[in-house]
Amino acid sequence: MTIKQINIRRFKLPLIFAVLSVVLMGLYKTIFGVENTIIGLIIAMASYAFLRLDLTSYPIYKSMIFLILNLFLAISAYISAINPFVGLIINFLILFTVSFIYTTEFKNVISYIFLLLYVYMWEYPISLDELPRRLVAMGVGVFIIIGIHILFNRRNFKKNSNSIIIRSIRNIQKEICHIINESYREKENIYIDSELRKLLILIEGRNNNKFIENHKDDIYFNIVLILERINSIINKVGKINNKSKDVIDYLNSLNHDLENITLFLERKVDCINEDKDDLNKSSMINNFTDKEYAFLGECTELIRLLEKNINNLYEYRRKKSRKRIKVKFNLKEILIGNSSLKMKHLRVAYSLKLAIAVSLIMFIVDLFKIPQGRWIVTSVYVVIQPYEEETLTKAIKRFKGTIIGVIIYISIFTFFPHIIPLELLLLILMFLYFIQKDYEKKVVCTALMTLSFGLSRSTVGYLAFYRFLFVIIGIVIALGVNKIIFPQSIKNSIYDLKERYLELTSKLLYELKSILYEEKYNENTVKLLLDCNLIESKLIENKLIAENLEIKDLVDKQSIILSKIRCLILFINYSNWGITSKHINVDKNLLNVIFNKIEEELREIY
């Protein structure tokens, strides 16, 4: 791809969404009234922000959830605006509940956008006669968001997951070549594990459902387990010196079969011919009499499983089979999931802090009818972040961005108040907003947009003064709240994540005890594995981990244990997949031995 093509792609999406913003604002103003104009703008911003998520799995279900949530928020915003004291209670409950449900170990874009929409609906109150029109506006907005998301993201999961699988197999092939050439390094093996961890994160992001038992991406999960096991076996082989000719021949054949699979994934061949696999030759599977190479024969079955799962994956896509969706309702799982309600946990602390601060400011602004007081509310809401360091960074950038925006606004509109039509100005500002990555520059754009909207009703100096003053007040309040109410630092969050990590692993072991007898894992087991993987990834990405050798050692040991647990689940699957082979003879006694070893290793960490 040339630099010119990259630049075109970089500007294309922001331009599309800038045009969409102007169009939606115009349509919402015309169809749903002036009081709902801002909803059109936020819907466009939400459509752009949600592109970083994956909502393509069960889109109808997710549309219904978002529809119910948005209608509930619209009704709640209407009721809360009637009376400040009733509003205080409603606003607190809404802010806490939505934030808690959608916030995990980091601030979630869903809660951020929908609560921002709630705050704006509260800031622009309506009469009872206007409520049905607002409800329709919110409902239409949900289907616009989901429709745009499917339009732009419908192939992303397939493309990204296939890319990771191909890269992982290619890297395993490189490992094998390096072993044959006696130039193997373990860091190659670690890199493959990190790639597979990314695929698990993609699977979790796609299947974060609260009401549906989702088995749609089980095949991808199986592929991760299989590739991780192959990678582990290759690592064992790489550590053995003086490989025999039989081992080298086997590795060459293994490499050849992996090449066939990769070519199929790259669409360079039409099918994987399982009958012609070199590893299926009897001469290849019967030569490992040495104890140190006994585990290598398992690769034969793993390759066969990998081929079957990849063929099933493409067969599933080709047929587009529709399984009956099993709806479930578990209040504890919906609200808490695999978390706990401890006050020190980030999810609880952040949601409470946000709800207390924003609902109190909303109450004061409403009670005293402070003009333009919504700017204080919005500033408090957007500046408060899960961690103190993030809040301070956001506050500084919002302060700088507001000053720059106010200066530009005064400079232009004092002397040339009508030089640019409002629609064209909005288009330019929204394009700049979407193209910018830095929050400070985004604030400059939003400040100019907000001030431009109010120009017809107020003077330039009046608007600029109150915008600057109220944003500063909001920033100061947010910083104070962040210091006083449940302060959380990134450094301390490491210990919180560590506890969650160990807690989820313990729950996972408890699940495995029952699975060993049923010989079938359930949805909660996979969810726990994916949650553990997500926290593990967050810990590994945290730069402070490298400075804390104790926690770094814990994460390394935990990572190995989780890998063994995934391997244990793979062994359990062998019986479900009907595998009988002298290379894989997994019975309940062996599974219990593996489980007990994992339990002992985890006990040592505690």
From TrEMBL:
Lineage: Bacteria, Bacillati, Bacillota, Clostridia, Eubacteriales
Organism listed in the record: Clostridium perfringens
GO CC annotations on file: plasma membrane
Alphabetical keyword list: Cell membrane, Membrane, Transmembrane, Transmembrane helix
Name of this chain's protein: FUSC family protein
Alphabetical list of InterPro entries matching this protein: Memb_transporter_dom (IPR049453)
Family label: Belongs to the YccS/YhfK family.
Pfam families referenced in this protein's UniProt entry, alphabetically: FUSC_2
Ranges that cross the membrane: 12-31, 37-53, 60-79, 85-102, 109-128, 134-152, 348-365, 406-435, 466-486
Cell compartment(s), UniProt: Cell membrane
Keyword field contains Cell membrane: yes
Topology of the protein relative to the lipid bilayer: Multi-pass membrane protein
Keyword Transmembrane helix: yes
Integral membrane bound transporter domain boundaries: 360-479
